[in-house]
Every structure is written in C-alpha cells, then in structure tokens.
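Team,

Forwarding the record for the chain on the shared tracking sheet. I've put the sequence and predicted structure together so nobody has to dig through attachments.
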Amino acid sequence: MTTSLRPWRGVLVATALPLNDDLSVNYDKYAEHCAWLVENGCDGVVPNGSLGEYQVLTPEERAKVVETAVAAIGGERVMPGVAAYGSAESRRWAEQARDAGCASVMLLPPNAYRADERSVLAHYAEVAKAGLPIVAYNNPIDTKVDLVPELLATLHAEGFIRAVKEFSGDVRRAYQLAELAPELDLLIGADDVLLELGLAGAKGWVAGYPNALPRASVELYRAAVAGDLATAKKLYEQLHPLLRWDSKVEFVQAIKLSMDIVGRHGGPVRPPRVPLLPEQEAVVRAATEKAVAAGLA
C-alpha cells in the first residue's frame, strides 16, 4: 500500500480518461473509475499522463481531472503528471497539484527539444520549488531525452527527485541505479517488463493495463516483487499479449478498447490519435476476451 512518506509506491494506474461520443470529458465516469481501481486493489492513480491524453486537454480540463481524482479517492493516492513544454508551466501544474491536495507529481524532462544535462537539471530544480516530491519519468523513446542512471543519480543527490518511472525498456539499468542511488525508488514504467523489473527491486508500477484488468494485474505485481515466480510467471504469460500494447504507439486506443470489452467506459480518443485499424482491434479484442475467459477480469 501507499504510505504518507512514499505515496508513489505500489500500483499506481496511469488512468485513461473516459470521453463521451462528442469527445468531451466524462468526469463522473472518471471519478467512478478512480474509485473502482482502488476498490480492486490498486494503490492510486496517475492522471494527466500520456494515457490520459493530457496533451490535448484544455487547462481547465486538465485541472478538473486532478480535482476529480482527489475528490474520488483522496490526494495521497493521486500523483498527477505535470509535463509541459516550459519549466515554468510544469511548476504551475505542480503547484496546482499541491493545492488540490496531491502528495507527489510525475515529471518528464524538457520535451520541446532534445535537452542537454544542464537543461534537465534546471528543469527539475524549477519544478521542485513547488514543494512536492517528484517522480521523474524517463521516456527516451518519446522525449528524445534519456535520463540515464548517472543523470538520475545526480538529480536524486540534488534533492530534485525521489523516484523514477523507467520506460527505456532496458532492465539492466535497475541494477546500476541501485548501485548509484540506492535510495532512489525504481518504478516500473512499461507493462511488458513488469516481471523483470519487479524481480530487480522495483518499488512501484505506474501501470496501464490495470485500467481494464486491475485485480489480475495487482496480483501479478505483488507476486513479482515478492519473488513468487510460480504465481508471477503464469500470470505474466497470460497477460503479456495485452501488456505489450503499453509499449506500442497505439497504447491509448488498445487500453480503452480493452476497458470497453470488460464493461468499463474507455470511449473514443481525441485527435490526432485515430481509432485502431481493424486488424489491430481484432488482436486486442481476442487477447482481452481470452483474458476474460481465463478469469482475469
């Protein structure tokens, strides 16, 4: 479970955002979704991440999403994404999260251009002024900025970050991070390397597929970090056909489709995202229905 000292630990779901047919945000369904995730074993939520389509929300929508999550499950369980093109804007979003009652935030490096190390350090230093613990988000695939273990260790030593959501896919980094910054919490950032990073000492999982399959996903995570390979490996094999979509370009559409199939409300996506191709939808649908048939929903 989360704690007041390290609220980013455990299974924190990067929440998909339910949209109506006219692409407006359905805040009532979002509140219900956050509560449902906690009821099904998840420790908290991460609104306004990429899965939450934050880049295509208005400032008013983005703020209300955070406030809705806090009202539904309490601020200690809510870790908003505060990414923005400018450091000042990211700091304002961190302040908004603080004022809404959140206990931590998640922050990408500068992503308007390929930032150098000095720019990365200045960015995290600026946002840290908001006073909330920061979980760095390393996604070199999308941002073109790689928070390598040495840089993460420096950010941690300076007091700018407390944990990192690691999405590089390079599980070898877990061991180097543990050597360079043993007090820096490693969070699993990609669903399809969960077992590997769980066994490597991860303290949490910023997760995608629990949006559709929370109970089985939480059981998998708990078994992985406990070293229960008999339980974890079987679940991992069953869920991996879905988990791997978290690392694909179409991850938002895939997860929302799985939500719809299991009776949740995923709904459409906002442009420039477009619906899955028929052949992609067929793959996701078949994998989701197989998971449901196996009792994983």
